[in-house]
Amino acid sequence: MRGISVKEAAEICGGKLTGDGRAEIFSVCIDSRKVRQGSMFAALKGERVDGHDYISKAFESGAVCCIAERIPEGTAGEVIVVPDVAAALRILAENYRRRFDIPVIGIAGSVGKTTAKEMVASVLSQRYTVLKTEKNLNNELGVPLTLFGLEPEHEAAVVEMGISDFGEMTRLAKMVRPVMAVFTLIGHAHLDCLHDRNGVLKAKTEMLTLMPDNGTVFFNGDDELLAGFECRQEKILFGTGENCDVRGENIRYDDNMQLCCTVRGFGRTLELKTPAYGRHMVYAALEGAAVGLKLGLSDEEIIRGVQGYETVGRRANVAKTDLITLIDDCYNANPDSVKCGIDSMPDTGRRVCILGDMLELGENKAELHAEVGRYAEEKGVEMLITVGVLAENITSAVSVEAHHFSTNAELIAELPNLIRKGDTVLVKASHSMRFEEISEALKLLK
After folding, report:
1. Fewest CB atoms within 10 A around its CB: which of 264, 270, 276, 393?
2. Beta-bridge mates of residue 246
3. Is 100 helix (H, G, I), strand (E, B) or coil?
4. 440 vs 135, 328, 434, CA distance in Å?
5. E strands of 229-363, at which residues?
């Protein structure tokens, strides 16, 4: 972070400062354990932890100031007092972002945001010094922390922008001010608040009102809602259809199970290969290629960037155990991402899906779960195993072999009786289902 004075920070967010404010801030932390010399500690109040209780610890660790809604008794250090710490951070992040005249690419969509972010960053890093969103810092608390990570050496930024309700994208876009945007897919996610796919589209595209007229928007042209959406910015479609400006063809796996495809766009033809698993990775490769082509990267730079992509967390990790091929994709789930996972399962061995509850799907959640079950059966999945109240709708909708359990522990106890040598097993559910426990148990099977 470029240094700004404590006094300037207080003025920007309209806070009341205790002290002269001459010290400079070089980082912003919301976790007192990560405070270092030159940090500003933001004392956020959560459901279980109140950051105000850690202000003294932050100063002991080298914080130059804290931003807080009150000053605890005995505090020795400069404090910027504001009515709402989270809102103040958004104001500071918006101001700080405006100090950088660099390409900033916003990543939005219901499925594949993190994958797209990593792929676009991998491609751009072949030429530029790139800042990218780390971990899951894609919401109204995470995006400010991402933006505060901008340093003078950064030449581009790729910022993941995640929302669950109307208005959130507007607040994120005010901070990020993207000049380019990538929209991965409009799917069935956060329907408790957004109601249906049209609501998802409306909420995600709020970003465009804050983008410049000469900005560029990359839409998944295989998504009918995105393909038909009109905007005032330059619109570039990527996908596999004839309507796409950047099109993937001849999609295949090589002998090492690396996904390969031919990409045509901007009058150029590239042969791309990515080490990541899943046919949906074609879209990630196209996203990276489309942004790279628009920014004038060479064929070699784009090819290296796509090849250099690395999987993050428990997203479609493929592991060969002594017994099975495990597709560990238990980071999160909605109907669209589960279907993508099923589509990507290789035909070798018996195909088994272990699926759990998918959350925030609104009034039609039972039917959306049942639809996933029918889709799995249609695609040749030979056994379905589910855990969770909602996931029971998956197994009850199919005629293939199916088993339902109330808890992860019950399922794990039965795994030796259900899984056999040579199986290909997909594990996927919403993050709160803790399906990593099941993945780890599968790895230990002999």
Report:
1. 264
2. 238
3. coil
4. 21, 9, 11
5. 234-239, 246-253, 259-265, 268-274, 317-320, 325-328, 351-356
In the numeric block, which tokens belong to residue 310?
Answer: 């690395």
Mean pLDDT of the chain: 92
DSSP designation for 313: T
Q: How far apart are CA 60 and CA 186, in angstroms?
A: 46
Extended strands (E) in 388-441: 401-405, 424-428
Could you tell me if 420 and 412 are in contact, meaning their C-beta atoms sit under 8 angstroms apart? no
CA angle 197, 209, 199 (to 5 degrees): 15
**Is residue 31 left, alpha or beta, with left meaning phi > 0 and alpha meaning psi from -120 to 50?**
beta
The pLDDT value given to residue 314: 55
Query: HSE of 401 in the Cβ direction (CA atoms, 13 Å)?
Result: 10
- What tokens were used for 339? 């279907």
**Do the Cβ atoms of 276 and 316 come closer than 8 Å?**
yes
pTM: 0.80
| Beta-sheet strands, E only, within 103-224 | 104-108, 130-132, 156-160, 180-183, 216-220
Integer-rounded Cα radius of gyration of the chain: 23
Nearest to 164 by CA among 336, 362, 308: 362
Q: Establish how many alpha carbons lie within 13 A of residue 19's alpha carbon, considering only the half-sphere containing its beta carbon.
A: 22
Residue 290: name the closest of 214, 133, 181 by CA.
181
Which tens digits make up the pLDDT trace of 115-152?
Answer: 999 999 999 999 999 999 998 899 999 999 999 999 99
* CA dist., res. 258 & res. 274, Å (int): 6
d(CA 97, CA 47): 29
Rounded CA gap, 130 and 135, in Å?
15
Question: So what's the pLDDT on residue 333?
Answer: 82
DSSP H or E run through 283: helix 281-294
Tokens of 446: 């002999």
What six digits make up the tokens of 247? 């099109």
State percent of the chain over pLDDT 90. Answer: 78
Instruction: List Cα–Cα distances, 227 to 89, 189, 210, 238, in angstroms.
Output: 35, 19, 20, 9
pLDDT in tens, 184-204: 999 777 778 888 889 999 999
The region of weakest confidence among 19-23, 283-287, 429-433 is 429-433
